[in-house]
Amino acid sequence: MLAKLFAELNSMPELPPLTTPTKRKRVSPKKQVLQKRAERRNPNRTARPPEHFWVKRPETRSAPRRRFSKTQLHKLLLVDGSVLPGQQLFGVRRCRGQRVPRPVDEITQTQLNNVALINKDKILNKHYGSTCHQCRQKTLDTKTVC
Question: Region (Disordered) spans which residues (predicted)?
Fold first, then answer.
């Protein structure tokens, strides 16, 4: 029976060979990105290592510093005795004085001339000149002293 089957198989016209799917090599996503990336212009040149790359430092674990508010610090120093009860520990904050406009009678002609001399080169036109960074006014050149 087996011989009969072999004889039939040999007498059959030739069949095309079966194509079996070939296994593709799996490429990791990292390698795919590396393959897609353009080749370096100068592959012999390597990047400089970061500063202090192989420097070993001794590990020191210090206790976390506690931050005190001014009132807590003042109370601690009162208990310690290094500050007297009426004594101020910190300086008093002073705010900057407000600018008071001067009366017209105090402004002299020389001061007006100085202001006019400084401002005569400024152009208040949107189409000509360049913006001065400090005063936000239009000026002829970028390197003006405002």
Answer: 9-67
